[in-house]
Amino acid sequence: MNGLNKGIHKVEVSVKWDPSPAGQPPTDLDIIAATYPAADPSGSPAYVVHFDSRSPDGTITLNRDSKTGQGLGWDEMMTVELNRLDSRYGRVVIGVAIQQGSGPKTFVNVHKPGLRIREGYTVLAEDDFGSVLGATAATVAEFVRDATGEWTFHPGITGYDEDPATFAQVMGVPPQR
């Protein structure tokens, strides 16, 4: 980062996928955000934001939640206002999990999945989950507060073989392989 860069302030994480073919159960992807204390950025999350929730201070909000992938454009959207997060938080990990209610599903079973992370109109990352086809969940981004208080973006897709509830608790730790 140079002196003119003021870090990442507010990001939008979006996920899309096509509905399941006729006669097959719907596919439901969920964006999950876990916020970690600056004092223990690799420990347990201070709180988790997922479907039907938002952060206690309103800085992380799920704006759109699809249970089927139907509709035009991006099916799920989450806004993360890093610049408003209290200084006691030093790390935010974003993940995507596949609901397993209709039986085991991995990303290979999701039709045309897509991920986009952007700040304003600047696209920070795009992906199709092709590197984690055998996973049931994946971390897709990490934001870390540096010593100056600015947030930096660390892209990367890492697959997990966990149900959504377990994934939300372990997504801040790289999976054991």
| Residue-averaged pLDDT | 91
Low-confidence stretches: none
Helix count from the secondary structure assignment: 1
- The radius of gyration is 16 Å
Strand/helix succession: EEEEEEEEEEH
The major β-sheet equals: 5 strands, antiparallel
**What share of residues is helical?**
under 10%
The side-by-side strand order for the widest beta sheet comes to 4-5-1-7-8
Can you count the beta strands? 10
Which class best fits the helix and strand makeup? mainly beta
The general outline is: globular
Q: How much beta, percentage-wise?
A: 35-45%
Distance between the termini: 33 Å
Q: What multimeric state do the chains show?
A: single chain
Summarize the structure.
The protein has one helix at residues 164-170; strands at 10-18, 29-37, 47-49, 60-64, 76-81, 89-98, 111-119, 122-127, 137-145, 151-160. With 177 residues, it is mostly beta strands.
What does this structure look like?
The protein has 177 residues and is mostly beta strands. It is built from one helix and ten strands; from the N terminus they run ββββββββββα. Strand 7 and strand 8 (122-127) form a beta hairpin.
